[in-house]
Amino acid sequence: MKANPDRACEHLDFTAEVDVNRIGTGETADGKPRAYIADVRVRCADCGEPFRWVGVQAGLSFSRPMVSVDESELHVPLRPASADPDFGLGIPGFSIGFRPGGEQ
Questions:
Q1: Is the dihedral of CA 88, 81, 57, 38 positive or negative?
Q2: Residue 62 gets which letter from DSSP?
């Protein structure tokens, strides 16, 4: 379906891109990664408008999902089903805070 410039897109079809990254390869004695993280992006397939992730703090963490500063990319830590539940924890990350009205 092609977007009509005279009418707002109804966003009926979507595309998603997912990249899975290995974190800290070569830093362990066995050369295996210390963590994995999936980066997810969603766009309208008709007009190409990117979608934003809602209600997720900006930054990068290996213990919880976070988003890029522009909210267009969701960073989700994950582990193999066979890995210990604490796999990937303890790797430093960062978060970006927001203070309404700026610094006082």
A1: positive
A2: S
